[in-house]
Amino acid sequence: MSPIILSEIFLSGFMLNSTACLFVYCMESSSSGTNSSAIQTSSRSEENLMEQRKRKRMLSNRESARRSRMKKQKLLDDLTAQVNQLKKENSEIVTSVSITTQHYLAVEAENSVLRAQLDELSHRLESLNDIIGFLENTNGVCPNPLTCPESDDFLVNQMNMNMFHMMNQPLMASSDALLY
Questions:
Q1: Separation of CA 61 from chain center
Q2: Looking at the record, which segments are called Disordered (predicted)?
Q3: DSSP-assigned states of every residue in 10-64
Q4: What one-character DSSP code corresponds to residue 147?
Q5: Taking a C-beta distance cutoff of 8 angstroms, is the pair 43, 23 a contact?
Q6: Which H/E stretch holds residue 67?
Q7: Interatomic CA distance for residues 44 and 149, integer angstroms
Q8: What backbone phi and psi angles, to 5 degrees, belong to 124?
């Protein structure tokens, strides 16, 4: 068996014990008359070939590991950027909710003031309508002279003064008083 056949067997993927191959080769070469230097050369070339394959596998593994680390780092960077973006959006939403809440509270306070003013004006209107109704029903004439006041009577003057003050009095409603 020649050294070329041994290397072809090795290259084709069969893993043979090198000592067994050398023994077979030695047996054949001693019978065929070849010298032992050919055995040593074949053995060295097989070792070199194995070393080259080992180095190639090692380099390939290193490159694969490097690509894997780079991919993992890129994923980590992307996730970190996404976290920062989401934190920024969350902060903007919290600010927007806070501003909206402040506007809501201001509008609610204003509505409370307006409700209080509506109640006061409704009460004044009801009082004025009662006075007008009383005056229309009596036509300015008192049905019982003993109970009706005279035109210069104190009670009539007081009612006129109260009505005058009521018409000219500003509405006093405060949002602070209604919020608490």
A1: 40
A2: 33-71
A3: HHTT----HHHHHHHHHHHHHHHT--THHHHHHHHHHHHHHHHHHHHHHHHHHHH
A4: T
A5: no
A6: helix 37-138
A7: 142
A8: -65, -45
Instruction: Return the structure tokens found at 121.
Output: 């004006």
3-state secondary structure of 83: helix
pLDDT digits (tens, 9 = 90+) for 68-122: 999 999 999 999 999 999 999 999 999 999 999 999 999 999 999 999 999 999 9
Determine how many CB atoms are found less than 10 A away from the CB of residue 10.
18
Q: What is the pLDDT of residue 36?
A: 64
- Closest to 18 measured CA to CA, from 47, 41, 52, 53: 47
Q: Which pTM was predicted? A: 0.44
Least confident of 1-15, 44-58, 145-159: 1-15
Determine contact, residues 26/38, Cβ cutoff 8 Å: no
What would the two tokens of residue 65 be? 């590991």
User: Given pLDDT bands bounded at 50, 70 and 90, which one contains residue 163?
Assistant: low
- Residue 11: CB atoms within 10 Å: 11
Left (φ > 0), alpha (ψ -120 to 50) or beta: where does 33 sit? left
pLDDT exceeds cutoff 50 at 145: yes
